[in-house]
Design brief:
20% strand, alpha/beta, binds zinc ion, single chain, 210 residues, six-stranded mixed sheet, Aminopeptidase
């Protein structure tokens, strides 16, 4: 690899949707398609960017949640560690991003419930698991960039998330990481708007210097 490449690893830990049932939500329905759309947008802007999609299509999140420390010894997490090690070894001048992509059910207007507690208007949430009083700086920069570039800033929400072991591991390698959650309800977030948001994230990724 040449020097100063940008490498973007997009991770989808909850994409095992074959186990989803009508009564039980077991996966993130819109996460993998969003990850792929983000990847396409990045490559449209910069064909030299190295993009890797790493999805978990086989293990139901109710069996084991790949974002938690308990999953470190699963083959999916061990392979991810190998990818991290490989990327780290290539070249220290690379900018390496690890993006954790999820989706949430959205607001249920029939029952007036907000299962995800992300807020009624939220189309895209950024979760940050920092244990300090300030956000990680890349998370805050992404949030600021998005609210400054959308017509209605209150569709973007920055929320404190649970401790995230994939991001913890990525940061231990010196990689830069953020987590996004997209609204799964297509009436609340149409594909066109979602793609515009993902294009903004792609622009941010190619612009921001960690
Ligand atoms: Zn998820």
């Amino acid at each position: 690899m040449a020097e100063n490449n940008i490498i973007i690893l997009i991770i989808v830990p909850h994409s095992a949707c074959q186990y989803d049932t009508i009564t039980q939500r077991r996966c993130d329905k819109r996460a993998k398609s969003s990850a792929m759309a983000l990847l396409n947008n990045i490559q449209r802007l910069n064909s030299k960017a190295i993009c890797i999609l790493y999805a978990n299509d086989n293990v139901d999140r109710r069996q084991i949640d790949m974002n938690r420390n308990i999953s470190r010894n699963t083959s999916w997490r061990r392979n991810l560690s190998l990818v991290f090690e490989y990327l780290k070894k290539q070249n220290n001048n690379n900018i390496i991003w690890v993006i954790d992509v999820h989706s949430f059910p959205g607001y249920d207007y029939k029952t007036n419930t907000d299962v995800s507690k992300f807020g009624k208007k939220t189309k895209l949430a950024i979760l940050d698991d920092t244990k300090y009083s300030t956000w990680h700086k890349e998370t805050e920069a992404l949030f600021t960039y998005l609210i400054n570039n959308v017509d209605e800033p209150d569709i973007i929400n920055l929320i404190r998330g649970s401790k995230n072991d994939i991001q913890d591991e990525a940061r231990s390698f010196g990689f830069t990481s953020f987590l996004i959650e997209v609204n799964e309800n297509k009436q609340q977030l149409q594909d066109k708007t979602l793609n515009e948001l993902l294009m903004l994230i792609a622009k941010f990724l190619l612009k921001y210097k960690p």
